[in-house]
Structures are given as C-alpha cells and as structure tokens.
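It is time I had a proper look at our fold encoding. Can you supply me with one protein entry, sequence and fold together? It will help me judge whether the discrete encoding reads sensibly. Leave the record below and I will have a look:
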Amino acid sequence: MSTVVTLPRALRPAWVEVDLAAIRANARLLAGLVAPARLCAVVKADAYGHGAPEVAAAALDGGATTVAVALVEEGIALRESGCASEVLLLSEPTARAMGEAVAHGLTPTLYRLDGVVAAQSAAAASGRVVGVQLKVDTGMHRVGADPAAVLEVARAVAEARGLVQTGLWTHFAVAEALDDPFTAEQLDGLDGTRRALIGAGIAPGVVHAANSAGALVHRAARL
C-alpha cells in the first residue's frame, strides 16, 4: 500500500519517504526474534511522524498482534482508519475521555483508583465487559502505580463490575544501556508485582515490559 500526502507549499525541496515494506519486514523480523512472546507496535504521535494508520497496518501485516498509542484521540483515529486489532492506551484516560475509549473498543491502562472508577462507570454505561491493563512504575517515573499501591488498584479492578484485568506492564528507563543493572532491577520489580497479584488471587493477564531496546538485547524481557 502506498499513500501520498500533499503538504502546503514549502520553500525547501525536502520531503519524507516512508517505506511501508521495510516497516512490514522489520515487524516480521522482530516478531520472530521475540517469539513466543507477542509483538506490540507503538504508533503514538502519528507513529512518530510516519503516519499511524499506515504504519499500524504494515506492522500488523508483518506479525504484530497489538498496537499501542498514548491518547484516546489517537486510538479513535486508528479505529476510523479501519484498524481492528487491540489498541492499547499507554496512559490512563481522563474521566471525560474514558467513555470514548470504551465506545471505540480501546484497552485503557489504569494506575489510579479514580481511573478504575471512571472505567467502571464507562463499562456500565456501555453495557459491556471492558478489558483493562495495569501499569506499575518500576523506575521510569513517567506514569504508573507505585509498587506499594498497585495491589490496591488491582483489587479495585477485580471488584469492579464490568472490568477485567487483561495485562500488567511497566516501562524501561535505560534498556539501551547494556552495562546498567537498572533494567534487571525493573524486571525484578515487575515480577514481584506479578507474584503479589497472583498471591492475592488476581490473574495479571499478559505481562509485558520490553521497549525496542529491551526486546533486542534483554532476553529476559521477552515475556
């Protein structure tokens, strides 16, 4: 598939050419590398300027099983482009946006009790069971539940009518630094959370952590 986007007249003879065949081939290579783990293609920020609908389609064709975005608006745009795969939201939607996330079949990430309440309300309004994933902050310090609080959030999801936990994840901070032990520490933290949930009788769902660097160079991160 080839897409030509016409931009406003520019004064510099510069443009970007995106090779979707290369993206498809790269996805196929990565999917084979991490198997039997599954590949999720992150296409937030319009696939980092490459065109989210086209890149998502190419990555899925190459072997990715899921795509992920940061914002509800980005997920809606994928749905409107015809994307039928699971679309994971990497940040917790606001209460105002949660209903739209559920209506468009997006998978919210949760890490606050207020987020659980909003997701439960949206699920009740939709009349459907909504899958959600939990994010634990193991050291990236961007967003996510504190390890000491994540069990409380997981229990709230387990007790919420209309919600089911389908995943647990974290975000590596320095996976590209091969001699830094912090990635292993983050993996230990994630596994500790996984074991705590199981000990509390809560199924964590799909557990994942690897960004690109994590998938390429940290075998233990191919969960």
Notes: Residues 91-221 form a domain with the TIM Barrel fold (CATH 3.20.20.10). The two ends are 32 Å apart (CA to CA).
